[in-house]
Amino acid sequence: MQTTFARPTPPPIDAPARVQSAPRPRSARVTGQRRAKASPSRESEFKFGDHNGSPTQDRSLIDALANSKVFQEYARAFTEATGLPVALRAVESWQLPHHGQANESPFCALVSETSRACGACLQVQERLSVAAADEPHSVLCPAGLCDTAVPIRLGDRLLGFLQTGQLFRKRPTEAQFKRTLRLVDQWGVDMDRTKLKEAYFATRVVGTKQHKAVVKLLAIFAQHLSMLSNQVLLQQDNAEPPVIARAKEYIQEHQTENLRLGHVAKAVNTSTFYFCKMFKNVTGINFTDYLSRVRIEKSKNLLLNPNLRISEIAFEVGFQSLTHFNRVFKKILGQSPTEYREQLLGAR
Question: Which of these, 54, 167, 189, 219, could form a disulfide with 184 (CB 3.0-4.6 Å)?
Fold first, then answer.
C-alpha cells in the first residue's frame, strides 16, 4: 500500500488562521439524492435509501466505534507496541486528533496552546483529510513532523479516518529546529526556548521500514472496523428507555417476518407516531434502517455456509426480494453479498 508525502505551506503570517472558513474536503460534501415517489410496496426501500449515510449518522457511527471495546483494546495495544498515538475521527473534525493523549508529541503539546499554532495544525489536518480519502496518506506539517491518516470506507462511502503521527521520519537537525523556532515565534508561542528544544528533539523518530509497518497495521484494522461497523451500531446501549429495549427484542424475534413500524409500536404499547419519534431519537437511526441492519447482520453469519444460495439467505432473514437484499447489503457493508462471502471464505 503506497504512502506519499506532501509538505504543506504554513498559514499567512500577518493574518490569524481562520479554521472555520476552511473549505470542506470534497469527500465530505454531501450531494442531494433525487427523491422519487415511492409506491406503498417500496416504502421501506425508499426510506432506507433516504436516510443511509448522512454526515450525522456517519459521525454517530464513528463515535460508536471509538467507544467500542474492540477499538479501545486495539488503540491500547497499538500505542504500547509502537509508542505512537492513534485516533479514530470523523471526516469533518475541528479538533486536534492527538491532543491530550498519553503519547502526544511533547513539542506539539506545547505549541498547541496558542490559537494560531492550533489553526495551522488544523489546516494540515484538512489537507490530510482530502489526500487520504481513498488510500493511506502522510503529510509533513510546517514544523517537519509527519502525520498519517488511513480511511475507513464502506464501498464508496467514507466514514472517517484512523490517524497516527506527530513523529519525525528522520532525526531532526539544529538547522531544522532554528527554522521551526522562527515559525513558532510567528505563531505567538511565548515559551522558554530550552524547554521547546528539549521537547522538539524528544519527539519520536520512526524509520521508513517501521513506518510502513505502522501504516499497514492501521490499514488492516480500518478494514476490520468497516466490517464491524454495523454490529457496533446495533449493539449501542445508551441507557435506552425500557420501551426501546423491548422494541429491539421484538425486532430480533420477528425480523424474518413482514415486520412494520405499527407492529412493533403495538407490541410495546405506544402509538406509531410516538414510537417512531422516540426510536429515532434514542438509536440515531429510523426503524426501517435499524430493521435492515439487523437482517444484514444475521445474513453475514449465514453467508459463512457455502451451501446456502444468496437468494435463500435473503428470504431467510426477512427480505422480500433478492434485488432489495443486494442493494441494502451493499449500502451497509460497502460490498455485495457475493463479494463479502468470497472475502470471508477466501481468508479461511
Answer: 189
Using the predicted structure, report yes or no on whether residue 238 has a pLDDT greater than 80.
no
Grid cell at residue 307: 451451501
- CA 13-17-20 angle, to 5 degrees, is 165
Q: Is residue 180 part of a domain?
A: yes
Residue 250 in domain? yes
Helices (H), 187-207: 193-201
Higher pLDDT, 1 or 310: 310
Note whether residue 27 is domain-resident: no
Q: Which domain holds residue 102?
A: 5-14+47-232
Q: What is the value of pTM for the model shown?
A: 0.64
Contact assessment for residue 143 and residue 175, using Cβ atoms and an 8 Å cutoff:
no
pLDDT digit string, tens, across residues 310-328 = 999 999 999 999 999 999 9
Helices 174-186 and 193-201: crossing angle in degrees, nearest 10, is: 130
8 Å CB contact between 150 and 162: yes
Quick one: which of 73, 70, 206, 95 has its CA closest to 148?
A: 206
Which residues on neighbouring strands pair with residue 157, listed in sequence order? 154
Dist. CA 38–CA 43, nearest whole Å: 6
Query: What is the CATH classification number for the domain harbouring 242?
Result: 1.10.10.60
Nearest Cα to Cα of residue 288 among 267, 262, 311: 262
